């Protein structure tokens, strides 16, 4: 099952680091939290710098950690 982008207000499915798709800002969310607007570019808010970005559109994507051997 591929990871899909999340929108502001969606529930966070798993703990981890997520990236703001429009600007690349990283933020850590915990499972059960709700995704918020990005504090870097304010996507999902009236102050957003991305005019094409509207409320309800996908914004956050899960950051996949690099695969490495655990010792
Ligand atoms: Zn952003």
Describe the protein's architecture and organization:
The chain starts with 15 loop residues before the first strand and ends in a 9-residue tail after the last strand. The chain has strands at residues 16-20, 26-29, 60-62. Strand 1 and strand 2 (26-29) form a beta hairpin. It contains no helices and three strands. Residues 20, 22-23, 25, 38, 40-41, 43 line the site of zinc ion.
Spell out which ligands are present.
zinc ion
Give the overall average pLDDT. Answer: 79
**Helix content range of the residues, please?**
under 10%
Order of helices and strands: EEE
| Count of individual beta strands | 3
What is the 3D shape?
globular
- Tally the helices: what do you get? 0
Question: Uncertain spans, ≥5 residues at pLDDT below 50?
Answer: none
**Biggest beta-sheet profile:** 3 strands, antiparallel
Which structural class fits the helix and strand makeup? mainly beta
C-alpha Rg, in Å?
13 Å
Q: How many independent structural domains?
A: 1
The end-to-end span amounts to 28 Å
Q: Strand share of the residues?
A: 15-25%
Strand order of the largest sheet: 2-1-3
Brief sketch in words of this structure:
This protein is mostly beta strands. It is built from no helices and three strands. The protein has strands at residues 16-20, 26-29, 60-62.
């Amino acid at each position: 099952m591929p990871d899909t982008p999340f929108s502001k207000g969606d529930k966070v499915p798993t703990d981890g680091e997520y990236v703001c798709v429009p600007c690349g800002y990283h933020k850590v969310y915990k499972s059960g939290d709700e995704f918020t607007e990005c504090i870097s570019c304010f996507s999902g808010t009236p102050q957003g710098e991305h005019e094409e970005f509207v409320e309800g559109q996908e914004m956050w994507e899960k950051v996949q950690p690099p695969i490495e051997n655990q010792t």
